[in-house]
Design a protein that fits this description.
CATH architecture of the largest domain: 3-Layer(aba) Sandwich
GO molecular function, one term: beta-lactamase activity
Distance between the termini: 80 Å
Largest sheet: 5 strands, antiparallel
Number of domains: 2
Order of helices and strands: HHEEHHEEEHHHHEEEEHHHEEEH
Structural class: alpha+beta
CATH topology of the largest domain: Beta-lactamase
Family: Belongs to the class-A beta-lactamase family.
Catalytic activity: a beta-lactam + H2O = a substituted beta-amino acid
EC number: 3.5.2.6
Radius of gyration: 26 Å
Keywords: Hydrolase
Number of strands: 12
CATH class of the largest domain: Alpha Beta
Strand order of the largest sheet: 4-3-12-11-10
CATH superfamily of the largest domain: DD-peptidase/beta-lactamase superfamily
Length: about 325
């Protein structure tokens, strides 16, 4: 009789006991491991609120729709393997090595094949130099910022000038945009902590302090007193943020990409990309004056997702940038 009573008592308590055991932390963790309820998806980035996976991105078009908290800061994406490959490219030509040692050659590349795990490598990344027309991308940013804030009306004439300024590097169009926005306002946008595209603590960066071709107003950059300047770090950052829709707003970033795509000057980087990647989307701005040669591009198709920037001071800079582009593309596409 006692045995039956004890057995009945245990049977009645069993749901309570089982519930207690499975709510203990170790058991709960073990159960989750086997059930897969807490498994982390491959190629994912974890935030305090959610897990965002690469598969959620539409990689076919830019800008990418990724939560801001899932996008790493470019400064933190230095990659040793990619750096070694870039240095191997540099050392394939003795003259390039000499130029880099004298700060006459700077290179930056961002491998975005897996955008949420991008990789960055550079040569002389914070060496600010005269960059001719390349900094017109800063005028584009300041213009879109002014439009967003209601300080500039987006007329058909404004749109036409922004396209001319970027695609054909037209100086008159650039000057009209600078006059509309204001030299001081451009500098303020570049130094805005939201972008930090001119970084006083790290050698400077993008700068436009004078109209192109005419105008008496000149505000040299605070470090070297240059009128039109760039570093490969800040230009790479510009394109990287643009790819993720982080310049002004996703809508404004998309419009900026529209002005940058399909460049109408087919030299330097583009002369190579026309041949090796004729179907790729190329978002690009270059610059040349005397011996200063600059080029920058965001390249996008199923095999190519990367940013490349080069700033050179050399009489044969045009040829040099073509050769660099070919070697960099070979490395980034083959991953070799």
């Amino acid at each position: 009789m006692k045995k039956v009573t004890v057995f009945s008592l245990l049977l009645s308590l069993s749901p309570v006991i089982l519930n207690f055991l499975f709510n203990l932390a170790p058991w709960n963790s073990l159960f989750s491991e086997f059930s897969g309820s807490e498994s982390k998806p491959e190629n994912s980035v974890t935030s305090s609120d959610s897990v965002f996976t690469l598969s959620a991105l539409s990689l076919n078009s830019l800008p990418l729709a990724a939560p801001e908290e899932s996008v790493g800061q470019l400064e933190s994406l230095h990659n040793e393997e990619l750096q070694s490959k870039l240095e191997a490219i540099l050392h394939s030509n003795r003259h390039w090595v000499e130029l880099s040692k004298s700060n006459s050659l700077s290179i930056g590349i961002v491998d975005m094949q897996d955008p949420l795990h991008s990789r960055f490598a550079s040569i002389n990344e914070n060496n600010m130099v005269y960059a001719a027309s390349l900094p017109k991308i800063a005028v584009l940013l300041a213009s879109e910022d002014a439009i967003e804030q209601g300080k500039l009306v987006e007329t058909s004439a404004v749109k036409a000038d922004m396209r001319l300024m970027i695609a054909k590097s037209n100086n008159e169009a650039a000057t009209r945009m600078i006059e509309r926005v204001g030299i001081k306002q451009i500098g303020q946008v570049l130094q805005n902590p939201r972008y930090n595209l001119y970084d006083l603590q790290n050698g400077g960066g993008l700068w436009v302090g004078k109209a192109y071709g005419k105008g008496n107003v000149r505000i040299g950059d605070p470090i070297k007193n240059l009128s039109h300047a760039a570093t490969v770090m800040e230009v790479c950052k510009y394109y990287y943020m643009l790819a993720f829709g982080q310049l002004v707003s996703p809508e404004r970033s998309k419009e900026m990409l529209g002005f940058l795509v399909n460049p109408e000057l087919h030299h330097k980087f583009v002369s190579v990309l026309d041949r090796v990647a004729p179907d790729a989307k190329v978002y690009r701005k270059s610059g040349t004056w005397a011996n200063w040669h600059a080029d920058s591009a965001l390249v996008w198709d199923k095999n190519r997702r990367y940013i490349v920037v080069a700033l050179a001071e050399d009489a044969k800079g045009e040829t040099m940038l073509r050769e660099l582009m070919q070697k960099i593309d070979n490395v980034l596409v083959s991953k070799g």
